[in-house]
Design brief:
By secondary structure, the protein is mainly alpha-helical. It contains eleven helices and no strands.
Length: 209
């Protein structure tokens, strides 16, 4: 059904097609002994009929103020991150949330893995054009905001992993640059491979670039 809908939309249609469900039965029991209504698969079939295909409940973070989001309880922190993750001054926003204890109060009520998820989300999706080392500065702010264990240990471990990833990425970039220079000077692929330890496919692409 998903494939049919996808093919329909790929052909340029703007709306989903209506698909009529049918089933060919050739089982041992005759006649077909089960219900043909999907609603009967639910414990409360009447409630399923009542809510099926109704407009879904929408929480539009783009129109909610930060103060209103703060009243949403434990989900408020992730909602705040979702709302501001594209903001160019994300770090300053996080600083204000930490200063108001909003982040700390929620993390204390949840499993420590929530803090790890939050860190991963922030580092992988946020941007801050005003501070080139925003991720590093944010980690520093979080370490100050969470002086107690196990939160502090979690943040320190994450910071170390981030540092290692940065070093690894830096080393990779250095190897690519070295390979480019050596190839430009006319050295053979075999020799460049021995020096840089880069795979053949990467070196071939660099040579053709």
């Amino acid at each position: 059904m998903r494939l049919l809908s996808y093919e329909h939309l790929k052909q340029g249609y703007k709306k989903l097609p209506i698909i009529l469900p049918f089933c060919i039965y050739h089982g041992e029991k005759s006649p077909y002994p089960y219900s043909t209504s999907l609603y009967d698969c639910f414990d409360d079939s009447e409630f399923a009929k009542e809510i099926a295909f109704r407009p879904f409940k929408l929480i539009d973070l783009t129109v909610l103020s930060d103060e209103e989001i703060k009243t949403h309880g434990l989900v408020g922190l992730m909602e705040m991150l979702f709302k501001h993750q594209r903001d160019k001054n994300f770090l300053s926003i996080m600083r204000k949330l930490l200063e108001s204890q909003f982040v700390q109060n929620i993390i204390k009520q949840l499993n420590i893995s929530y803090l790890t998820d939050m860190l991963n989300y922030i580092v992988n999706t946020s941007q801050d054009d005003s501070e080139p080392k925003a991720a590093q500065h944010l980690i520093e702010e979080l370490i100050k905001a969470f002086p107690e264990e196990p939160a502090r240990k979690t943040i320190m471990t994450f910071a170390q992993q981030l540092k290692q990833e940065g070093l690894q990425q830096g080393r990779e970039e250095e190897r690519y640059e070295m390979a480019k220079n050596l190839l430009a000077e006319g050295l053979s692929l075999d020799l460049v491979k021995k020096v840089t330890k880069l795979p053949d496919l990467v070196l071939t692409k660099l040579e053709d670039a």
